Amino acid sequence: MRIKMFTRFTRVFIVTFFISFQLQATENNMKSFEIVQETINKSPNDTRQYQVIRLANSLEVLLISDPDLKNSAASLSVPIGSMHNPDSQLGLAHYLEHMLFLGSEKYPEINQYSKFMSQNGGYTNAYTAQDKTVYGFEVNDSAFPEALDRLGDVMRAPLLDEKYAEKERHTVNAENETYVDNDMRKLYALQRYSLNPAHPMARFSTGNLTTLVDKPESILQQELEQFFEQNYSANTMKVALTSPRSLEKLQAIAVKYLTQIPNKNSTQPEITVPLLTDQQRAIEVQLKPTAELKLLQINFLVPSVKDQYMYKPGAYISRLLGSDHKGGLSDYLQNLGLTESVSAGFYGLHSEHYSQFSLTFKLTNKGLLEQDTIVASLFAYINLIKEQGVNPLQYTEQKKSLDNYFKFLPKSAGFNYVMGLSANMQHYPLADLLSYSFRLDAFKAQFINQLITYLTPDNSRLFLVSPNAVVNKDIPYYEGKYSQASIKKSRLQKWLNKAKTIQDKMILPVRNDWLPENLTLVKPEKNKKAIQLVKESGLSVWFKQSQLKEPKAMYKLHLNNALNDQSPAARIKINLLLNIINKQLSELHFVTQEAGVAFAIGSSDGLMISTSGYSDKQDELLLMLLTHLQNMQVDEQSLTLAKQELKRRLYNKKKTKAMDLGLDGFRQLVRQPAWSDETLLAAVDQVTSEQLVELSKQILSESSVRLLALGNVSPIEVLQLVAQLKVKIKIQPKPFYTIKRLQADPEQGALNYVRKSELEDDALVSLYLSAKQDEMSLAKAELMNKLLKPAFYDQIRTQEQLTYSPFTASIQVGDNVAFGLFTQSPAVGSAKLYERFEAFLDSFKKTLNEVKEEDFEEIKAAHIANYLAKPSNMKSEFSYLLNEWAQGKQEIDSKAQHVERLQSITLKDVQDYYTNLFFNKQDVQQIIVQVKGNKFKQEEVLSLTPELSVSDIDNLPK
Ligand SMILES: [Zn+2]
To answer: What region holds the Peptidase M16 C-terminal domain (predicted)?
Structure first.
């Protein structure tokens, strides 16, 4: 469904690590599988059992037995992607990914595949990358055998029914159209288009109506079938399965359902054309963006170091390049006012032979004019690394961080886990499948030094995204223009000359004091529920330990106040303050993150400070952040830059994806007070640095305090922290302020909000908000959504091809529940979309009345199982509780009650709920947000009777 961009880390050859074996292929003694890998290096934190087997059809299957799971998941990867598309049908690999799941021999009915998964508490997804295509599903374990059979059947005998070709071509086209004016997509396309034109990666990959079409020499349907026949073979596929079942049982179902995939003895087409010739080095590509975006990206293609993954020379260098420490590259450029941020990465490329260093500089207006200073600074810093940076000290820091991370590896489980693993099975030795990205065996200066030699002006590839870009060509298959030119020798030399004058103004990072030292576990509490440790006027402290035995914790400190809701200027001030604080703390962000601790500062009804990661030093971090706020200074340059950024963000909204604009409109309506972007923009320039310093003082002296402490902490530690917080914050003994949410007023008629987009598509958000508070409603809406969501997707996307990504959701608005239908469409305007939504709701009424009791009970059980599943990490362990806490509930930790409510709901309850919400509409108000794009400007705007039209968000009651 989606097209994947670059993946992190170096790719590695499949080293033949496995125990060699021979299949006993005599007729009487046909072995059904062989174990090819018994031991896989895993984190000490990981208690699951792993094994890789090879089936009689040569398919390698990774089995993961995890008794804690309720759901099972499977993923299958094929080492064939967009890079392998024939020239005659660009996008074919992606189109095949779509066509595969429209029925197979044993399960011919269209869309039964995804419907089956969703009715059994799961879902499916897939993506096509340059070098592979990956499929996956998750499902309640009782349905796992049939789900696997369905996957096996698809890979054995898909119908690839021509009947659906037209529809699916349109879906692929719509998917591409979603991105045609997305600047980052365009940049990614240009990175590829600017490679050696003879290399298959230099082509368009997604596919659209003009590429996926019959031509004199090439019939789409024939090519599709042929592509599948040639490339989809058990011997090159890899599968990963995870389930609560034992390894033996997993072996049995893998054999039973996956051996049916035929082994066609496919070979992976080898691509020997070089990615770059001299013509594609030292080039500058300029792109004029749709949004007001200012970026300079500098890339260096280097020979792949995939077989050195246990030494990580690439990560060693990118860690130094991207470091945010005082005196580093990023700090130096920010102090000059040239950049907003610098990020560095080292990536494997979708060709086995290359990797890439990529540096992205977010430019200020001044930076736009002084690009050569930025590039020269980069080369100065690279020189510094060359001269002083390749040493055991830097290695030790890198190693400590990786070791800690692997030792307490957060558990990834289920769908995402197997999707990643089946993909990695295409690239890494089986024994290192789980550990490759954390292994750091030794300090190898020679490998690092060797890589640095490629970081020269001659090898650089510059990509400038700028409103002032000088462009002369259309970007093939995208909206917008670009240019490409070689960089003059004299300019390359100028960078080097200038670099010499800059180098001694920079330094390399030193020791990281945030690396954790104490990784012991605190004494477990007897009480397993969340406890309110402090309940005073203006101060509430909740605490709960984790069931996971990890030395990690999460803190949420809420400095609760109404300051941000006083006026448009107040809303702007907090935004500017946060921008500046986060910039000032960029070094702290960087070092804490490397040490395995993270923090975030955000705003809502006041200021929210969150920390997470290793429990050691987290209290220290919280206090340090408060000290920073206490001593807050704002200089004029930072303020000017923050204003520029904020204005750009507000201004660019009209150019973001129509659906995002629709959701933003929804947020504006339900979170009160709200002001229009224009009103907010007008308030930006008035803000002074004194006001921001004043605001930071006010936050510390005019707030009530809510604290939530979760994980590896003891009540005593929490109370000690509270005592220290009281020194820093003058806590106001007043009731907590909660954000006002929209209250449904059915008397008004529908609330209809129209927003203008500067892009092509329309979008529609159609919500039904109930006016009555009823704690059963959310549970009913959740279960209704389980039934409705796949049907909506099927109707709107597959049957009617109106859009690429329709979805539905139940949403809490304050104490009430809203149910929404959402989509963006390149095919029809908002009025027509609404008509189709209504037609769907009408027809689904009948479907819902025909649902069988036992099917409903099964769906309900699967949904409840998701709530009861043993959490795999702290974030999922506490997600329900965090949500309750964030809503400001008096009592938290009530997941059990929610599950009880779900259990008590009958099919009839859901049917009645449906009828009332969408048809009788008793105590229900409709909320519409329609986004009008350029394409449908001529069409009439949707209006409902009766309705309250919202033409200006400023006119809503405050
Ligand atoms: Zn797709």
So the answer is: 221-402
Helix residue ranges, H only, 733-774:
none
Instruction: Report pTM.
Output: 0.82
Give residue 53's pLDDT: 97
From the list 626, 608, 624, 605, the residue with the least C-alpha distance to 557 is 608
Domain 2-258, CATH number (from 3.30.830.10, 3.40.50.1110, 3.40.462.20, 3.60.40.10): 3.30.830.10
Ligand 1 centroid to Cα of residue 126, in Å, is 8
- The pLDDT-based confidence of 469 (bands split at 50, 70, 90) is very high
Centroid of ligand 1 to alpha carbon of 173 (angstroms): 9
Q: What are phi and psi of 743, to 5 degrees?
A: -100, 130
Beta strands across the sheet bearing 552-560: 531-536, 539-544, 704-711, 552-560, 606-614, 597-604
- Which residues partner with 55 through β-bridges? 33
> What are the pLDDT digits (tens) for 680-731?
999 999 999 999 999 999 999 999 999 999 999 999 999 999 999 999 999 9
Query: What is the CATH code for 531-740?
Result: 3.30.830.10
CA distance 17 to 80: 23
Say if 2-258 and 278-409+437-505 have the same CATH topology: yes
Distance (Å) from CA 176 to ligand 1 centroid = 8
Q: Closest Cα partner for 283 from 421, 459, 405, 512?
A: 459
CATH of domain 746-955: 3.30.830.10
Distance 165 CA to ligand 1 centre (A): 14
Distance between Cα 931 and ligand 1 center (Å) = 23
Rg (CA), the chain: 29
Q: Mean of the pLDDT values across residues 619-636?
A: 95
Q: How far is the CA of 128 from the centre of ligand 1 (A)?
A: 8
DSSP SS3 for 616: coil
CA of 538 to the centre of ligand 1 (A): 51
**pLDDT grade, residue 37 (50/70/90)?**
confident
**pLDDT by residue (tens digit) across 558-582?**
999 999 999 999 999 999 999 999 9
In this predicted model, what pLDDT tens digit does every residue of 785-804 receive, in sequence order? 999 998 999 899 888 888 87
Ligand 1 centroid–CA 167 distance in Å is 13
Distance CA 360, CA 344 (A): 6
Domain ranges of the chain: 2-258, 278-409+437-505, 531-740, 746-955
How many angstroms does the Cα of residue 113 sit away from the middle of ligand 1? 16
CB 560 within 8 Å of CB 706:
yes
Q: Which pLDDT does position 17 carry in this prediction?
A: 34
Question: What's the confidence (pLDDT) of residue 410?
Answer: 85
Residue 477 φ/ψ region, left for φ over 0, alpha for ψ in the -120 to 50 degree band, beta for the rest: left
* Phi and psi angles of residue 504, each rounded to the nearest 5 degrees, phi first: -80, 5
How far apart, in whole angstroms, are the C-alpha atoms of residue 785 and residue 807? 10
Percent of the chain whose predicted confidence (pLDDT) is above 90: 79
Query: Which CATH fold would you assign to the domain 278-409+437-505?
Result: Cytochrome Bc1 Complex; Chain A, domain 1 (3.30.830)
Distance 95 CA to ligand 1 centre (A): 7
**What is the distance in A from the centroid of ligand 1 to the CA of 806?**
13
- Ligand 1 centroid vs 1 CA: distance in angstroms? 3
Distance 170 CA to ligand 1 centre (A): 11
Helix or strand run (H / E) with residue 396: helix 392-407
